[in-house]
Design a protein that fits this description.
Layout (H helix, E strand, L loop, with lengths): L7 H4 L5 H15 L1 H7 L10 H13 L5 H7 L4 H7 L10 H13 L2 H15 L14 E3 L7 E3 L27 E3 L6 E3 L8 E5 L7
Antiparallel strand pairs: 1-5, 2-3, 4-5
Length: about 210
């Protein structure tokens, strides 16, 4: 039997960018310490440290973590995440509900805004942010609706003759959001991200190309 002691810090490469980002985040949090002292009482039940709440939010932005629950789950096994938050291997992860409630408190007090503004400002000063423009499409969310449910408006939704629904054949038929809608999810719309891309039933925050 072999016994070894491993820390998250030892598993993150020396030249990994997350180390520089953690340095920026820690510097910003040091500047915000007086704000935290005013917000948090020295008595009563201790909450999740605000530093970890804000750094956790930064991880969500950097690694496209969709929710607080996913972040808390990932903290159970991701050594890089634990390194960034200053957690040891045996430190328990956070309860997702508690994490969300405590983070909302910081958002309401505008502390999160101050934190991100300082991190970005220092990153700009050090030349870590590129001025090159690029666009990321993150507003298209695929709906749980089949393309076979996209029928002419006013069409009655009848049960299929079998699970494969072979009698529904829309090939060659011109369909658009003006004339058709999903019988199972009427709020979804038919979108495609670009020429040559397959059209799918999705939700979108901004106008999209209508097939």
């Amino acid at each position: 039997m072999t016994l070894s002691t491993v820390s998250p810090d030892s598993r993150v490469p020396t030249g990994h960018p997350i180390r520089a980002i953690r340095e920026l985040a820690d510097a910003a949090l040091t500047d915000l310490s007086p704000v935290f002292d005013e917000m948090y009482s020295s008595v009563g039940r201790p909450s999740i440290p605000p530093e970890r709440l804000l750094k956790g939010s930064l991880l969500m932005a950097l690694y496209s973590v969709r929710s607080e629950r996913q972040l808390c789950e990932r903290l159970d096994y991701d050594l890089l995440f634990r390194f960034f938050l200053g957690m040891n291997l045996d430190d328990p992860s956070f309860d997702a509900t508690s994490f969300t409630k405590n983070r909302d408190r910081l958002l309401q007090a505008d502390v999160a805004k101050l934190f991100f503004e300082r991190v970005v400002a220092v990153a700009k000063q050090r030349g870590l942010i590129s001025a090159e423009h690029f666009t990321v499409d993150g507003t298209l969310i695929e709906a749980w609706a089949s393309l076979k449910s996209f029928k002419k408006k006013g069409t009655k939704s009848e049960p299929p003759d079998d699970p494969g629904n072979p009698t529904v054949n829309f090939h060659g038929e011109k369909r658009s959001n003006e004339t058709h809608e999903s019988t199972t999810d009427p709020e979804s719309r038919l979108y495609r991200k670009g020429d040559g891309q397959a059209a799918r039933l999705c939700y979108s925050v901004t106008p999209r190309r209508d097939p």
